[in-house]
Amino acid sequence: MLPETRLLLRHPFFLQGDVYTLGVPGSELAPLGVKRGWSPDAHERAVAPFALDGELAPNARAEIALVYLPKGNARRDHVLDLASTIAERLVLVGCNDAGIKTARKAVAARATGPVQSEHGNHAQLVATSLSVVEPKLRERRFEVPIAEGAALTLVSLPGVFSEGRLDDATRTLLDVIEWPARGRVLDLGCGAGPIGLSAKRRVPALDVTLVDVDDYAVEATRRGAKVNALDVEVRSSDGYSAVKGERFDVIVTNPPFHRGVGTEYEVTRAFVNEAPAHLRPDGALWLVANAFLPWEEPLRARFATVDVVAQDRRFVVYRATRPRT
Ligand SMILES: C[S@@+](CC[C@H](N)C(=O)[O-])C[C@H]1O[C@@H](n2cnc3c(N)ncnc32)[C@H](O)[C@@H]1O
Question: How far is the CA of 138 from the centre of ligand 1 (A)?
């Protein structure tokens, strides 16, 4: 159980009433005993004990909006705006090392009543009422050169990976990847879409599908596709969940990575382990990762051929072919 949940359970008074949750991890919903909520994360929706709302504009009313502090100030402000349209009363919880003290100040600045707080387990609870602010998704556009003279305009939204610039690992991958002349490409964990969108721009005959677990990333990629007039398919997906039974000629990924957080390793491991089931026999998985990460072994367990296509002090680009099925 997360420290935020333990803190809430010690102060049940704050959740007395009709509660709507925003961004509460699926595993924490049962202990809290709540029955409605929203998550922009397809994985959290899949593990939740009841159906959570998705997309970026939940249409709900409640007495209390319970928010688990998301990462990053821009996303935090968007979620607080959403909460303000759902309920008059806000209960926000977060950990001390995740910015709850700064968040408390942001909440106090727009509170319409007294701000109460409780502390414990390195977490803090902030309760107040908020003035209603219509949620606006602030987008940021940025140019990414993809070949001599050619560029893509990408759209970034709050909390989407690499916020407003091309990630160095992604650049390393894009410099060496070889796209087939035709066939199906899956961009797995697409973020703002730099990989799949540049594939479509460079080889218009490709049939490109981009997926991400995060609805903000899905929306950013859809906007990027529209701005560049690229006809691609963008889906919300926990790993391969939205492409069940489908096979591709290329799967390409710059997988999620946070040093020291075990769960992200599990996500990437599943990306690799389940790739053969989604590749055509002569298909390839392209993966870029930090050079010190242990991906060669799981790749070799699943593919008969694993080539290191590029390597420098920071990153390795692997191409894995001849999937073992
Ligand atoms: C390192 S970022 C790469 C983003 C983008 N491809 C790029 O190169 O800029 C990894 C992406 O994987 C997504 N992700 C994390 N877990 C996932 C999962 N279980 N299924 C699908 N996508 C996931 C994250 O939301 C994030 O956008």
Answer: 20
Show the tokens assigned to 157. 């939204």
- The whole-angstrom separation of Cα 299 and Cα 318 is 9
CA dist., res. 325 & res. 313, Å (int) = 33
8 A C-beta contact, residue 209 and residue 196: yes
Q: Among 161, 209, 257, which is best to mutate for testing ligand 1, by the most ligand atoms less than 8 A from CB?
A: 161
Identify the residues whose C-beta falls under 6 Å from ligand 1. 43, 161-162, 167, 170, 189-191, 194-195, 211-214, 217, 237-239, 254-257, 267
SS3 of 243, please? helix
Q: How far is the CA of 188 from the centre of ligand 1 (A)?
A: 7
pLDDT band at 258 (very low <50, low <70, confident <90, very high): low
The position carrying tokens 């997988």 is 255
Q: What is the pTM of this model?
A: 0.95
Residue listed under structure tokens 């040093």: 259
* pLDDT tens, residue by residue, 125-158: 999 999 999 998 999 999 998 877 789 999 999 9
Q: Which domains does the chain have, with CATH numbers?
A: 3-129 (3.40.50.150), 140-323 (3.40.50.150)
**Cα separation, 118 vs 45, whole angstroms:** 28
Q: How far apart are CA 46 and CA 103, in angstroms?
A: 28
Q: Which of 316, 173, 146 is nearest to 252 (CA)?
A: 173
- Band the pLDDT of 261: cuts 50, 70, 90: very low
138: how many CB neighbours lie within 10 A of its CB? 10
Cβ-based neighbour number of residue 240 at 10 Å: 19
Q: How far apart are CA 319 and CA 177, in angstroms?
A: 9
